[in-house]
């Protein structure tokens, strides 16, 4: 279950090179608009004095850190701006592993594909606990797996690829399990604005020295290419995390941080509500068409993805290529997300053509 | 000689909080203008279609990689765009250390302060070779220090903090020493556009599987806050470097990469010549005033810095704070750059007030 660097790229390239019309549902790139105020932030930046083109503070521009701290109810000193959620998770996992409190990282299966690679790169050992294709995690399974060798428990809610949203009781119990085992719960909440269930609970809802929350504006503001994310550390872990951030990246990109600040200050909640409505509509259209065709799928409670499966079509790269060539729909093989998703395919709802895609799939596999 | 994360920040904060007028010569932040086309690139970006706001390729936008490859005479597949030279050096040093070909990193003394911290973070052991305060490196000293345990030799030319520019013979011999010892020469050339001597030689001038060249647009385009850099790897090392880049950062910030592309395509060589002229003038003014006052200094051949020393004022944080408070000039303690610079102070020529600064210093220490 090692992260296969080229797999996403391979599938995207294969889809792009395919003959004929292919509906691209490979990657989690929103196809909706970023807020207008974000564009305005870039325009404004172009005319700033030259000193604004120089290094921001390593931990990020102060007003954005303050805005995040105020919204999340934490101290501004706990907030480190990162190069997207990718770096936030890297810093969080590094900090958990470097404390001398174990070398094992508990990951779920299915898993977001980057976590295993980060674990290995940081010298940790992955220990998988089964969440099943519906993605719901039984805390007692995590409790049984945790030990004094557990450095971190890494979860993602709302979940990629399953769409699961963990209930409050699960989140609180995960924090408690981390505390009991001197581990760090790393809660990646990058899809928090795409909770379709109304039940999402952030790990910040429990005050604890044993949890780090990671997030980014990549999905919530539809700007995966800007690379502005953040991690919220307990006070005793933040200084070492800032040091690593400085030694790896020095700082993040300042115009992008500023544009995000403008967008945060000026974007109406209606923007996010409209994106959720769009996604909800696409979930209904896509799963409705699968339902009509008698196909098996997982109804997501959040995030951008639907897992689906078709008899005789395992969740492999071969199936994905076959569906690109012959059905004109590009997804990701479930096997990229772990053993328990190996009979599934993941489709990202980032195209207006989701109903047509489901119909194409149903027709092809019929 | 461990990298002290807060030292730069401490000094900058101390200078900012000081009473009265302080001339800031702490950090290598250009105070001159970025090219107008770079600003135009941001303006243009603000109006792009939403799909341009999503993930760029992990290794960076293709036309910028092509532009760099063409200018540097390497294959485009060898070029990885990074989050500034900081990440480029991190990726290069990580790759050198992870080959299973030694755990020692040869660094110069004086040294650019980030290299020791990166070495330790990556599990390497620093082995210092003396360059002396003038910064010139005798290759035979490096040859004597190199062994089968040498993973990397990390150099910076034009050099921060000494201003040394290595002659062609030194660069070629360093590559040969790396080859002989199965090591990697990491040549950080971020100040290449600020060679005042006309003798700068890139390590790219020797084709070798044992050198990685790192660079950035932070200094050459006066945009330290944009975070666009690159590393050029030998073909057999590039794939693993791309994997680490992806696992740490996913990708760099796309609007910043695009603005740099526009600036590269449209900026006249006269822009760089004017910046060199400005720097040359500042070097003359600053060192001239020091000379008149009978102070000791190192005449830089490139980069932004002048090392100076004054009898009775060692290169310590205490001296720096004293000079901020009582002379109204903020520099960096030489001790931050290693043993051999411990009697020196480093002044960055990033203010139009360099002559006044030198006069203030001379008057205070007289």
The CATH level-2 architecture of the largest domain in chain A is identified as 3-Layer(aba) Sandwich
Total helix count of chain A?
Answer: 12
Structural class of chain A: alpha/beta
Contiguous low-pLDDT stretches of chain A (5 residues minimum) are: none
Number of E-state strands of chain A: 13
Oligomer state of the chains in this structure:
homodimer
Biggest interface, which chains? A-B, 57 and 58 residues
CATH topology of the largest domain in chain A: Aspartate Aminotransferase, domain 2
Into how many domains do the coordinates of chain A divide?
2
Strand share of the residues of chain A?
Answer: 15-25%
What about the largest sheet of chain A?
7 strands, mixed
Portion of residues in helices of chain A? 40-55%
Backbone shape of chain A:
globular
Strands side by side in the biggest sheet of chain A: 2-8-7-6-5-3-4
Q: Element order, helices and strands of chain A? A: HEHHEHEHEHEHEEEHHHEEHEEEH
What gap, in angstroms, lies between the N and C termini of chain A? Answer: 31 Å
What is the CATH C-level name of the largest domain in chain A? Answer: Alpha Beta
**CA gyration radius of chain A, whole angstroms:** 20 Å
Name the average pLDDT of chain A.
95
Instruction: Please name the fourth-level CATH homologous superfamily of the largest domain in chain A.
Output: Type I PLP-dependent aspartate aminotransferase-like (Major domain)
Cofactor (chains A, B): pyridoxal 5'-phosphate
Pfam families (chains A, B): Aminotran_1_2 (PF00155)
Subunit structure (chains A, B): Homodimer.
Family (chains A, B): Belongs to the class-I pyridoxal-phosphate-dependent aminotransferase family.
